[in-house]
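Researcher: Let's continue the batch. This sequence belongs to Response regulator, and it's 227 residues. Same format as the previous ones, please.
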Amino acid sequence: MRILLAEDAALLRDGLVALLERAGHVVTAAVPTATELRAEASTLIPAGEVDLVLTDVRMPPGHGDDGLQAALEIRRKHPAMPVVVLSQYVEQQYASELLGLTARDGPSSPSGLGYLLKDRVSKVHDFLDSLEVVRGGGIVVDPLVVTALMRRETNAVSRLSPRELEILELVSRGETNDQISARLHLSRGAVVKHVSAVFDKLGISEQNGNRRVLAVIAYLRAQPPAQ
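Model: Same format as before. Here are the structure tokens for Response regulator:
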């Protein structure tokens, strides 16, 4: 996999480069600012030299959500480009903004999106697996983010059964129906039935767009934005 990396902390950036290269990936560019991320993306992506963009949320030049905004811009210009953003803390507003853009891609578009906490990098196998899921068009939301967002559920989410909540959490982690079936020791048909029930209870139809993304957004809207 060819990865465009943006991370302002030099030690973490160098560590990510080493980790990714040891795993057999190619880091086509590793930059410390959102400005340089945009510049590299504008040349490398059209040239077909990037399979995934991996960026920190908070970066120079503004040291706010510059990395996230650069990722959103890249996604708007290149809707099929898989993007993973890394965050130091659970920032549901940022995750909601990122996933909301993907939901508008529509049901037939590859999602290819991840929102991970930086602690996930230390769990190397999980981190690398998450990148592969996103590259394949899946959605991965860090389990800690999902847990935090489930603490105060909306009425719609609270109507889900414990099994449906469990399955929705696995959907949020980017798992396919087949993977959920194997993990929970359920038939594929049973998983499909549960997933359909989740969509129905959340009021998500096929006409709304990417239903799996919208189901994840239901988590993100389950509690007020962090202050």
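Researcher: Any comment?
Model: The beta strands are 2-6, 26-31, 52-56, 83-87, 113-117, 139-141.
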